[in-house]
Structures
1.
Amino acid sequence: MKLEIVIAGGGFAGAYCARSLSRALGKESIQRVGLIAEQNILVFQPMLAEVAGAMLSPLDVVTPLRQFCRGVNVLRGRIVEVDLAERRLILDAGRFTRNTEVEFEHLVLTLGSVVDLSRVPGMPEHSLVLKGVGDALKLRATVIDRLEEANLETDPETRKWMLTFVVVGGGYSGVESAGQILDLLEQVKGFYHNLQRVPLRVVLVHSGPTLLPEVGESLGRYAERKLRERGMEIMLNTRVTSMTSHRVFFDRGEPIQAATVLSTVGNAPHPVMVDLSHRAGLETYKGRIVTEPTMQVKGRQRLWAAGDCAAVPVNGQPASPPTAQFAQRQGKLLGENVARSLRGEKPRPFHHKNLGQMASIGQHMAVAEILGMRFSGFIAWWMWRTVYLFKLPGIQRKLRVMVDWTMDLFFPRNISLLLPWPTELVQEMHLEKGCVIYHAGEPAMSFYILKAGRIDLFEGDRFVRSVRVGQHFGERALLGDGVWHYSAMTAEPSTLVSVSRKAFRTLWEASAAFRQSLKVDPVFAEQGQAAPPTRVEANAGH
């Protein structure tokens, strides 16, 4: 496939660039311009927290790219590799389509950023994120599912763990998400008869001294005070050091037992951008590709960048803020600049003064700084809704959001649990020292392989043996009576790979090589009896 201009990335910068180019080039644009995006939708990310809080429908915050960018060839796929020397890229379109090679003359990079939680042990496995619509739906379903399970639970400690929600990050996403979770819990708790007198706990953890540093200290303090008045716990100057399926650990204070953790930190450069900058020797600033004020990449002809992946200098700063406000305006001008370049004209530099910052904190309250003036409370919330309604693409979506917001004033939020839970056959989990994996007498549900750390097995209080890195355990219980005969506890921070009982049985029945590697007699499995220990199993800590 050959295109004159390829826009890599379907976020605000890429979509508005494509739209601007389509208008500038006219009818020829469909043959000359391609927009590559991993999803076929433009997500209005500032409203994702309201989707998670069951205030808006997911369809309210998405716009099909083919409708938004009419006149541009939209290609849905994932970029695997970019070769600047050959002026081509490789596109993975999915399971049933071969990788496609796309050649280009001009390349526009608008890939944005990705979530990278790997720096905190346990966070990738045990926390939720809020990057897309699917994440918002999953968070909404998780909160409702916790209420449903806690409504049946009789043990007070287990119920307390289920109804503790931790949000990591005190920026826009963290504060707005925490406020929406608290709103949702408060509004729907009355529908759960067994939870009427059970306390709910929402904890917001922030590494800085004040919330919402983008809007200034005074408004950050106001947001903190209002959230505390509503019962939210706020931990400032605190960092999460590790996480398990039951507990969150901090660099100060005691760990918190929580079943649901939302992480709004950990943004990192897109892997394609990292690879491209290393191989092509592109200058970067904090992981973002450095551009001229015109958004042309420094030292490169016919290579452009905008949005969160680009360091576009503005107002004397080396890079503009990574916000939707700047990405949208950069994309629009970038489309015009590429069109000017094609006509042999000089591109224009990017100039934009930040008009302000706003954040909703729940319960019809918000904080805002607009043109140097600060607002808080209901008036700020009304301004927040008005501004974002104006910015939302398309008349149809504006009307839908207006209707949903109006209904929210008079009717309770929808607590239908509709999201299907995918079956995870193989999981990786991080555990801190002293975590109990299972107790003797409990039903065996998984086969385990130890990736890192050490696990000790006990019979009552008596130490039996240790499981070391690379060893496995659990097959005898799964193939025998289905009950754990020992208790297992981590002796140090550990990483386990868990294979579900169903997946293990499928592998066992299908592969003689797999059975031989475990050294377990299949006769015992067929008879439902525990197999006699072998030398391999004894060494593996069975």
2.
Amino acid sequence: MSDGPEKTIQASIDFLKQDRPLRAEEICRNYLEKSPGSLDHLRLLGQALLKQGRTSEAEHYLRLALDIEPDFPQLHEDLGSACAMQSKYEEAITAFQRALELQPTLPLVERKLGQVLMAVGRGNEASEAFHDYIDKDPERAEVFRGIELFQKELFDEAITVFRGVLKQNPKNVNALRQLAISNWHGKRRLDDAEALLRQAVALADDFFGGWLTLAALLMELNKFTEAISAYEKATKIEPNSAEAWAGLASANGRAMYPEKAIVAYEKAISLNDSDPQVLGGYAWELKTVGDQQAALHAYRKAISVKPNFGPAYWSMANLKIFKFEEKEITEMLSQIECGDLTDIEDIHFRFALGKAMEDKKEYDKAWSYYDTGNKRQRETVEWEPMEMERRQQTIRSVFDRDTLQQRADVGYEAADPIFIVGLPRSGSTLVEQILASHSQVEGTAELPIIGRITDSIGRYRTDGKRFPEAILELRDKDLRAYGRQYLKEAQRYRSTDKPLFTDKLPNNYPMLGFIKLILPNAKFINTRRHPYDSCLGAYKQLFGRGQNFTYDMLDLAHYYQQYIATMNHWHVVMPDQVLDVHYEETVTRLEWQVRRILSHCGLPFEESCLHYHETERPVKTASSEQVRQPIYQSALGAWRRYEKHLGVWQHQLGGIVEELPEAAKNAGL
């Protein structure tokens, strides 16, 4: 005997609440085959189809239901939602207005109507609809008052309002969300904000705004895998939200799943193809997997949407082996000259023009754009050279020979990781690609794990002692636990069962002593390049985040000096543990260098490492296209083209140059 209407209706509702719309659809369709005029089943089928993003099918069944019962207000609301999701705004307005005529107290229709009116430019009517929506609920009105205070940056007052709402109703998820946002952006209490958002979505599992805000916060906290889960939830609640799909794409990209990121970006773009930021993110992931032509197409699409979108021009320049067309150079020059760019847009155009002029061998013009771009970028970032120097001196004093010898074998014994360190633009991606071409090595990426671990050490001590000093009071089992934690977190970035993997985060170089304590069998490679070429490569690079020392010539020289001091320290206190790999020797004596690298890592020689450019794998750094090319020597001694501009580096770093191998010292002659 088949289930009756009440049972199937309840089952469909339960499956919708569980985010299982396919199962709800199946139940409704089965029932409608026998009773095609069941109003409730038609409505539930429409809702199941809406949850799957099948909006035109949903509209069809909702209209069938309205043919049966034209005065059912909730059906008009559902129809309005289906039309709005298809950008049929006028039909949506009609449906929402009819729903309110039939039942003026429907809780969300005024807001939906206001949003659709705003979308078609009927701002005054939208404002009236929003006010109606707010005025019918004093609690809701108080939340909006708090939002207005937040928007005026009156954060304390806003927080007081939201707390007042929650005191009266602890389950008001909108107040929880807004209090979280105030803690996040106003007070920088990110842990509190996360707890509030998790409370909100626990109370209302289908709270789209809550999941979206939680996901964005998790991204800021570098909790990328958790952000992926939150964005996935948001896309299930609102399958036609381009914002949610774009967020999911970005989270997958940051978590180093470029293929998944591309799929999510394509879904976002199918819903809204006019967001230049989304198109730029899509292009970056295409570049990461090696599809340069598709990446260029996406960047140029972003520019067609927003001609002054400087980041797209710089991203094309950042492909390195790409050259601008003359019309693109003309357009960039025109944008610079127009004078109405934002600071960020202007900076991106200057770095892109630096690359364009360099490709034309107009090096003085190239330097002018790079130099002015750096000077403007330096004004937007924070960097304290003396604080960095003090920290590195402290690290060197803590991790001395005695400390490292006394606790040499107490860490976690696994030999899986190969740490590749150095300065940006010094050949680390090339070394990583060589190793990733070996059958026993998986190339991952620049893993942020060591920094997260060191930041956590001593965080809750009442005496304020943190890393590195707090290391001296850790027990042997604590060091071993940190080594185990590193490997556990690294596993999330791995996709094979190869015995070894690379961690190519250049900024790990001050942490080698700590890494040696927690992972005594790890391998270390320090990639080096002629100081002037290394500094020039960094000065020509507009980094997406971090590396704030690269935007001033003196800051760069000072940082390079501290880097050399720290690496020399590791060579003294950890003899024969760190292999220096000079880029110039790799380029001129590839097989000799490859054998050195493999021997240092305890690996047998494999011919595939000489053909590293044939290895297919995602590469997320600026060198991604360069390491897909056979070995070339055109970049050796590139600093000589700009020699007359490099007096600061020559004065500060000349002594370091004298100690270089001949291949590095004389490169480019």
3.
Amino acid sequence: MTQHDRLLIIDFGSQVTQLIARRLRELNVYCEIHPYQNVTDAFLADFAPKAVVFSGGPDSVTRAGSPRPPASVYDIGVPILGICYGQQVMMQDLGGKVEAGESHTAEFGRAWVTPGAARIDLLNGWFMDGSGREQVWMSHGDHVSEIAPGFEVYGTSPGAPFAITADLSRRFFAVQFHPEVHHTPNGKTLYENFIRLAGFKGDWTMGAYRDEAIARIRDQVGDAHVICGLSGGVDSSVTAILLHEAIGDQLTCVFVDHGLLRLHEAEEVVTMFRDHYNIKLIHADESDLFLNELDGISDPETKRKTIGRLFIDVFQKHADTIEGAAFLAQGTLYPDVIESVSFSGGPSVTIKSHHNVGGLPEKMGLKLVEPLRELFKDEVRALGHELGLPASFIGRHPFPGPGLAIRCPGEITREKLDILRKADAIYIDQIRKHGLYDEIWQAFVAILPVRTVGVMGDGRTYDYACALRAVTSVDGMTADYYPFSHDFLGETATRIINEVKGINRVTYDITSKPPGTIEWE
């Protein structure tokens, strides 16, 4: 994306680094996240960032060998913003001092920052509500005990006397808190000020991206044929429509029915793409293959890897039937790429692997086309609008590539999947009937690997329990459970138990993310 001004986020391992990128993308700034060890002098020269952000991280700069950026980053003449661990890195690198955490300086959670005597443009719009302070979100044990030469203090908190510091002559800024998270309500304003100071034009839009992506697809593919892995979800569907607009009949979509789809989903996908969009489509019913391979597997990571391997095998089989096929297209998104980077040495802890990341086995003989790999989910939806997809389709809740496999903790059986499909359909019907679908980021049922005793009529039952899950979120990185009324939950539980043979107990999952994930596996 060299035609855009670019901002570089150097990742030191924070679990919320993606939120920094999201806040900047929302401001129409193109940015990329790269692990600190990949950012070399040569990388900086090639990337040519207009500004740099240092992320937070779990390490301590007081430890020998702790993550650091290349020294040259301070000499390339662009604004730098250090966040939490990133602030401590700047102070330690530039002549200040950081001390290991002590109980009276550690801060975790909500805190209040008060301004220094002088005002700076980075803080325009801050400290304006008459209280003389701003709510922020802290998560640090170590603390800056001495700021680097050239820096001044512009904000303090009870546990961070140097909560906001800056060297205005070099346009270096450092904050101890996390402005990217929801719990720093005015954090967006701080980012707006930073990119304004850096001189960004704000030219990152989905209208421009559509034109650029089509041109890149045509340049990459030429006159070859492309196979697109179509799941029916928003990501793969936008990928397919974008590719069809770029290369027309050179595209063949392969829709893999792995037996892990929701009720009637296969028929809906085939009807929409084959009939409505007139896209060449192969409906590959491979449910027996997947379910047989998954038989007896209960480990969630093994499930994901098995499904990913079989997807590749299925694509290989169908690629052999398409003359001139040279490329495989996937709906990989930027969060997939970032969350999988730990496999190649990134500093973040790997939470889960993604079945559509990591390239293709050489034996396939196909190259990879991933036109969405630079986009976040909401950007994909905006691109879908640009491409003319119906709003009702674009607004569908996310559905994972491994499908119902990760909503069925423990071993997967056909019986459990049938029960799960019916319960999930009733739950979504209830949500739509009550007008709540668009308020919720994602909702689904998980069937639990336990049976419980119940009473129906005059008889004893010993059937499965299920958990309802519904969350609100902006970007899927953090999430809160949706506050259904007890009347809604009671009505929904009654319908599921009455209409789905095999379930006699319904629970509601009220776990937020973190500490939980949205999906159960």
4.
Amino acid sequence: MANHLASETSPYLLQHQNNPVDWYPWGPEALARAKREGRPIFLSIGYSACHWCHVMEQESFEDPRIAALINERFVPIKVDREERPDLDQIYMNATQMLTGRGGWPMSVFLTPELKPFYAGTYFPPSGRGGMPGFDQVLLAVHEAWTQRREEVERMSAELTAQLDRAGRVAGGGAALSTELFEHAVNQLARAFDHAWGGFGGAPKFPHPMDLQLLLRFWNRTGHGHSLEMVRTTLDRMAAGGIYDHLGGGFARYSVDARWLVPHFEKMLYDNALLAATYAEAYQATGDENYARVARETIDYILRDMTDPAGGFYSAEDADSEGEEGKFYVWTPDEIEAVLGEEAGTTFGRVYDVTDAGNFEGRNILNMPKSIAQAARIMGRDAEELAAELAASRQKLLEARQRRIRPAKDDKIIVAWTGLLIDALARAAAALSEPRYAAAAGAAADFSHDKMQRADGRLLHTYRRGQAKLDAYLDDYSALANGLVSLYEATFAGDRLEEAARLMDVVLEHFADRDGGGFFFTADDHERLIARNKDATDNSTPSASALAATALVRLGKLTGEAKYAMAAEGALVAAAGLLEQAPTAMGQMFLALDYYLGPTYELALVGDAGHVDAQAALRELGRRYLPNKVAAGRIDAGAGDTPALLGALLGGKAIAAGGEPTLYVCQGYTCQEPVRGLAAITTTLDALTRR
């Protein structure tokens, strides 16, 4: 019999609907039962693409004996962390306070008043390897609850008070200055792996926000080592097994320091952030390999992770047919069967395919040497070899598509959609790919049409025709930031107006008027045991930093003081953390880069019918000018925004008709307009470091 999860929309929750555990979703029914019966809550938090979540389900939650222990002694609640990041934040903080570490699946025991008193992550069904068995944990927690209730409730009350204090700390106190950048870059340099790129050892995560920070520091100062750290990391990742050399896109992280063996799950947010980073690196360096990786990553999302209505799916699992990575790995015989002996041998030499294998007897495709290096070793022409390998990759991709795919989490989340809109818009400009801007526009329309309440407030998640759950700070801020990027790529004024409307909601409902900055949940959100400020980056940018980024860009684009002041307030509230924990503040540093400037305010206007108008827009888009905002009017059908342009141009008249005209401004003080494609190109060259 199905449990209480059967009517949910989350793929993760639906995976558990037939467990013998009598799971409830988080909601009034389960919480009321816990209070009514005086039972503790067993809260299990995970997500669809989580490998160890699947393991714990198979080992423990499908075990009738363990299920009986849970059902008899607890009220079991299952939560998808991607649907309820507010709960995930609170109880992850509790897990880390209680155990010194965190992760998923997260296993937390709560009083009926929702206060945590015991926590862990994955537990084996029975004790092994020094870990207690989950059956032992259940019995010990039940014994503590029934025999030492007063002690448990006192400890849970103290922990809850700590959680509330920790959630409100934003970290003000330091001065906002360029010295903060130097300190952050020094910290990243100390953690940098000079051999393989990235920061720290295994497991190794991509850290895209930190890479974007390093690019901006190089752009600001000419600091060569910052650019070297970025290039080494991007080169090694793109050559490693963390990158899908056939289908494009990145796995979530590498279990080793070499980027060879990935945790094979693919997350939308990782690929959005990395596509944007590779597009920026292409702008900064002109390296065509970065353009290729950005295109292949975005094309993977558009091909495999896009809903027909325009939204983007959340994730693909690591596992297929019960085995981690089975969809992605190869044997030499499998490759030869598709490509033939000669082409298969060549492919195997370049992509590290051997009889012994590099992953459990099979092979994760990776490139120990570049195609140019391999061509020299093999005595081949590099261009000819590259063409052969491209054809081989396409044939292998077509063969792989006939395999059983990993499960797909097809729910759509506003915040992650916003991250991808931002990446698509930036890549559209950097790579001159109008179809990316079109996909970003379709996603923006989807978010507006399908993921809003009647009053215009956002909803957080959507699946199969149903949008639900009030949106969080990252939803509003990531979407608004993406819409600003989409405006800059297309000059469609309605996108900027919608971004401003969303941030007006943030200012009204999320601002901390006493302590500064923003809360993760709105002032009318469900009351929980703590109201957090999401101040530091994790795999995704912090919600507070996304808010600061969107606000500082809006302030500079529109000239509206309320946005500029709110951005400054968010940065001031985070200043202490920028100083104390710089390697966790990458996105906030990107906002600080805009804030401190110098920021170029660029306005491009012209007649859409003029032969040079679109060429001028392409010239503006392809350059690495990270601390610029751009406004304009090229296509008369894109929406007229005279107030916006007037703010940038300081009341100067806009040249009408004829060849395109560029206005270069700082602090709303503009130089003499530059007319004509050649002059615009020369002016933009002068603003660009490369």
